[in-house]
Amino acid sequence: MLKLIRRNAIYVDGYKEYCQEFWDHDIHYFRPTNPALIDETWFERTKSWYDKKELGLISGQPVSFHYWAVDGDNFIGEFQLRTELQEEVMTGIGSIGYSVLITEQGKGYGTEILRQGLVIARDHPLERVLLTINDQNILSAHICEKLGGVLMDRIPAYNKDEGNHIMRRYWIYL
Ligand SMILES: CC(C)(COP(=O)(O)OP(=O)(O)OC[C@H]1O[C@@H](n2cnc3c(N)ncnc32)[C@H](O)[C@@H]1OP(=O)(O)O)[C@@H](O)C(=O)NCCC(=O)NCCS
To answer: Which PROSITE patterns match (predicted)?
Structure first.
């Protein structure tokens, strides 16, 4: 059964494999940590940075919460929630990031991660969350619409990984 959990050292190897897969396949819709940075000390080394992000203590970065999706002993994917709607969120990364290990895609995990992630979002004082989805990413757009996403608009966007592209912006009301 899929669960969203706080980052946990026992899943670091699975997390690294997932990051490696995404980098090897050059998946540009979502770019996880560079796997080359993940060594034996990575989890402890980065813990306070993630804790500070949750408290909004990293200058220039939105408040964000990071979850890992696991099924039993297996690392499946991740979920990120940003709880403020500043410029970078509205025109770039959106309130939510989610993804699934390539070898585990197409089994319903992506839908379940977003569904459970929205339950987590409801624990915050938020009326709605914004999903920013590359117009070409029909799978993510389909999942978002299935879970209540209302298309606000399509706007031109740019980032290092996706280049120039058209971005769909969806609201999901909580
Ligand atoms: C998007 C992503 C999370 C989906 O994960 P997944 O585990 O494959 O998703 P699911 O198995 O829950 O659902 C896939 C859905 O897409 C549908 N689908 C598959 N191919 C499709 C196509 N060509 N057109 C439209 N829908 C399609 C499936 O039928 C399924 O929908 P259904 O359950 O209503 O039948 C995964 O592809 C991923 O990690 N992609 C890279 C990162 C990413 O894009 N993240 C989102 C950034 S906004």
So the answer is: GNAT (PS51186)
Ligand 1 contact, 38 CB (< 6 A):
no
How much is the pTM? Answer: 0.96
Mean pLDDT score, 102-125: 98
Is 158 domain-assigned? no
3-class DSSP assignment, residue 168:
strand
| Cβ(143) – ligand 1 distance below 6 Å | yes
- Position 89 scores a pLDDT of 96
- Parent domain of 96: 2-126
Question: Quick one: pLDDT at residue 109?
Answer: 98
Q: How many helices (H) and strands (E) does the chain have?
A: 5, 7
Residue 161 C-alpha to ligand 1 middle, in angstroms? 19
Query: Which among 129, 78, 117 has a CA at the least distance from the CA of 101?
Result: 78
Q: pLDDT-derived band of residue 160, with 50, 70 and 90 as boundaries? A: very high
